[in-house]
Target: unspecific monooxygenase
Amino acid sequence: FSKVYGPVFTVYFGLKPIVVLHGYEAVKEALIDHGEEFSGRGSFPVAEKVNKGLGILFSNGKKWKEIRRFSLMTLRNFGMGKRSIEDRVQEEARCLVEELRKTSALPCDPTFILGCAPCNVICSVVFHKRFDYKDQRFLNLMEKFNENLRLLSSPWIQVCNNFPVLIDYLPGSHNKVLKNFAYVKSYVLERIKEHQESLDVNNPRDFIDCFLIKMEQEKHNQQSEFTTENLIATVTDVFGAGTETTSTTLRFGLLLLLKYPEVTAKVQEEIERVVGRNRSPCMQDRSHMPYTDAVVHEIQRYIDLIPTNLPHAVTCDVKFRNYLIPKGTTIITSLTSVLHNDKEFPNPEMFDPGHFLDKSGNFKKSDYFMPFSTGKRMCVGEGLARMELFLFLTTILQNFNLKSQVDPKDIDITPIANAFGRVPPLYQLCFIPV
Model:
């Protein structure tokens, strides 16, 4: 459509006009230069049924601003207990390596193990605890998130989102999504009650403690956004957004490393040179590892995890490039058109870490790198996610060689087509201890 109609055009979902922005210039102009006007969340009726406008992902206005600011501060602050988030990620990377050792170099599908690690990092940040990879409650939680990502990308949910009246009256998989979320929310509520009983205002252990302290500070404010309902919704959002996305990126990343063994070898050589064998990789290493940094960026650019972003909406009538967009109109920003721009990234359909390296082999930043979106609604967990991807991938490659079950040339890296997110095909590999 953009080839015919240019970078700004309208499509209809059901009876609703939706404005699509295509290409770096249009996306940047809207989300950065007109950030405030484009900072609304477009409608996603199935999700609204779950959180009723609370939380961080699907809220709007003052409610969204306050919860977002608080969440950013708390995640950034590292002031959660005595340990920094980086410590927690490193600990989890070590546990991940131990778990991979147990596969005894036999072929395995890495989906489950790679899901546990990011999920545990979120558990550590939110609940102040990590789970054993065999823990039944933990497995149930992961199963619910897994199933929901799959269902939210199904055709039926797209129909429900466009004709929301169906949600209340018809049977179908949307009810399963709602049931899964109800399970997660009841689990979160149990944890919140435990936290309330053992809360020490001077020593917050995790995200829930920080939120409870804020609730206490604002208890006389009738208009306060810091309520138990909002805490449940926010924690559920942080979980849903922070678990599946990172684990899918890791899984897709390992598949690409299997397909391009020459890339993997160069990363391992750099790890060997900079980190060695006797300590865990840390974030300080990244500035000395331009090739590895480029590979992590290229994985995210290439897989294009959330191709059309989450829907935005304009918060007022906006004049944009000679068009008048009425308040409340849903806006879809094509992240694919930015990440796969052929001027910025020659041969964008090729996996090539050189997209992020200059002539001398130094890491090269790009404004077009926006897998986390950009502007006022960019991903709150971006810092955490980037840390996890770097530390998990380097720690895995420090400890294991990856062995494919098929000839690398024959590895299929086409995603199992998906609407909301792109999911890699199932595959098996062997983790051979170094």
User: Anything to note?
Assistant: Residues 228-259 form the longest helix (32 residues). The CA atoms of residues 165 and 238 lie 28 Å apart.
